[in-house]
Amino acid sequence: MVCFCTTPAAAIPSRISSSFSMALPQVPLQMQLALALPAITPENRLDMQLGAFMSNLTLPTLSMPSGGLFQIAPMLALVGGTFPLMDLPALELSLQQMGDTMMTNVWPLAGWLASLKMAPLLNFALAARMVLDLRALGIDPLEMSYTMPRVSYPGHHFRMSMPRPQLAMARILMGLPSLFSLTETFQLPTLGEDGVARGMTSALMGLAGIKPPQLGISLPQLSKFALVLSSLATIKLAFGDIGLSGAGLAPIRAMMRFWGGLPFPMPPMPALDLQMQLDALPSMESVQLGAGMATPALFAPMMGISMPQISFLPVANLMLGLSASLKIVLDMEPLDACSLCPFS
């Protein structure tokens, strides 16, 4: 069973003062552009790499509806790593236990975090995300010794090179490993074999009958709480506990002033727009893995599956996100299969 029973949620207020400052200037475009430059150079362009790989594949032309099985399979596979999808009574009990323990142990002491103003918090989290991403490129923004490279690209370099059919197929291939794992979870034949579509439909209809846990708060409140904790976790990863105390804002402000004074090596908006499109692409590794599994015979049965609405998925995914964020913010494991849990 998944629960928050052993989470010392009282540690949250002591670590994060309700009056800690989040007032920062807007994250400079120069920081975002420094991240975009390596990704949009022709030798690193993911869309070009994916396009070349996809051009060598012989696969059927498909048009998957929004929310189809290929899109929802990764989410189901993630939830299936924690919750017993094959045992519906146990799944329902586990979901409700999770909700009960969260509301009993975490929300009364940490729910006040959902009252934080989102605009300054999200700006702070964006700055933290930029710092983490720049460090991954070998750049420490806090050292303030970066020099923008001299680069100039003609406008066509800012256009996505993959046509939509290729992009749609790449996303389907990315989802195939999760789909294969679902057939194992549901104890179904391998994709492409007789009976797999019928069995998958039956399993999904069973999950559609599971109601989300009853909580004392609304889904929008829970979503905001999860977003706040995710933002705080990002801030802590970038700046440590000093970022949550507000005492370290002076060097962060200085860092952002420095980056804001760097010259632009190119018109920033087309480059940043292209980077957002590239960031939304599936990884080359995931597409290659899916392509190794794909055969034309396995697609046709999957196309005939009508996806029911599985209403517990949003809450389950939010709870899994909360577990990860609480672990970072509190330096301890928030989810625990507690044998002494009064809700088990």
Task: Explain the overall architecture.
- The protein is mainly α.
- Helices cover 59% and strands 0% of the residues.
- The chain contains 15 helices and no strands.
- α9 (219-239) packs parallel to α15 (313-330).
- The protein is flat.
- The N and C termini lie close together (7 Å).
- The mean pLDDT is 84.
Notable traits:
single chain; about 350 residues; mainly alpha; 15 helices
Short description:
The protein is 59% helix and 0% strand. The chain is built from 15 helices and no strands.
Structural class by sheet pairing and helices:
mainly alpha
The best one-word shape is flat
Number of strands: 0
- The separation of the N and C termini measures 7 Å
Which stretches are poorly predicted, pLDDT < 50 over at least 5 residues? none
SSE blueprint and pairings:
Elements: H1 11-15, H2 29-40, H3 46-55, H4 69-80, H5 88-110, H6 118-136, H7 164-185, H8 196-208, H9 219-239, H10 241-245, H11 249-260, H12 268-279, H13 284-293, H14 296-303, H15 313-330
Helix pairs in contact: 2-12, 3-7, 4-7, 4-15, 6-9, 7-13, 9-15
